[in-house]
Amino acid sequence: LRGADPQGAALRALRPRAMRVNQNTALRGEKVTLVPYTSAHVRRYHEWMQSEELQRLTASEALSLEQEYEMQRSWRDDADKCTFIVLDTEQWCEQARGDEDCMVGDVNLFLTDTEDPTLGEIEIMIAEPSYRGRGFGKEATLMMMSYGVTDLGITKFEAKIGQENEASICMFKKLHFKEVSVNSVFQEVTLRLDISDQERQWLLDQTKHVKRKSYMEVKLAAGGPET
Q1: Domain N-acetyltransferase spans what residues (predicted)?
Q2: Per-residue model confidence (pLDDT) at position 121
Q3: Sign of the CA dihedral running 28, 227, 94, 101
Q4: pLDDT at 146 > cutoff 60
Q5: Who contacts 205 (Cβ-Cβ below 8 Å, separation ≥6)?
Q6: 105 and 127 in contact (C-beta within 8 Å)?
Q7: What gap in Å lies between CA 206 and CA 227, rounded to an integer?
């Protein structure tokens, strides 16, 4: 999932709307803050992805550090992906620590349907074990969904999750997703949520506490941005 993009350039040619729209956006919630994925985050991310457990849960393969830097650059420029790094808000804001010291995971949106730019596939990874089961993934997912609806024009979400990842499946069902199919070959469950007016209002209510900031201004204040 991290590297596979079988339709590649053809998809990008069909989508003039670049996902770099979030490159200067920081979203601060109660537990998590979402920031764009920059080169400053790559080394920590690379350390996470050496974990066989995370490779299995994310259907990923281990990359070299240089490949990980190249992946970050390609994702930054890709018109079909929107990625935020998930930070611990308390550590990041109250203790004024650098991003790399506060990273707990990432959350992504993929535009996978060339016929329907309003459909977004969402993924959440809480890589730090000590942060799992504490509501960090739930808040990050809600924040990304809200951002997708308000900024990217998403009206339908899908989540594809390994059958063994019961905690993630349960979380998405609590966020009103419904199971629509099971792929026995890939051992994967697909869940879906269509954003009706009622669901949109519920989502906005769930994220009304979120504060939007200029990521560049925040990083300049902390000593300078990385790209």
Answers
A1: 32-178
A2: 96
A3: positive
A4: yes
A5: none
A6: yes
A7: 31
In terms of pLDDT, which residue wins out, 13 or 84? 84
Chain length of the chain: 227
Where are the chain's structural domains? 25-211
Beta-strand runs (E) in the chain: 25-28, 32-36, 81-88, 103-110, 119-126, 156-162, 178-183, 188-194, 211-214
Cα four-point dihedral sign 84, 88, 94, 98? negative
Joined tokens for residue 34: 């979402």
CB 110 within 8 A of CB 121: yes
Q: Which of 36, 40, 7 is nearest to 21 (CA)?
A: 36
Tell me the two tokens of residue 184.
């026995």
CB atoms within 10 A of CB 123: 20
Give pLDDT, residue 144.
98
Tell me the CATH number for domain 25-211. 3.40.630.30
- Can you tell me the distance from the alpha carbon of 84 to that of 105, in angstroms, rounded to the nearest whole number? 9
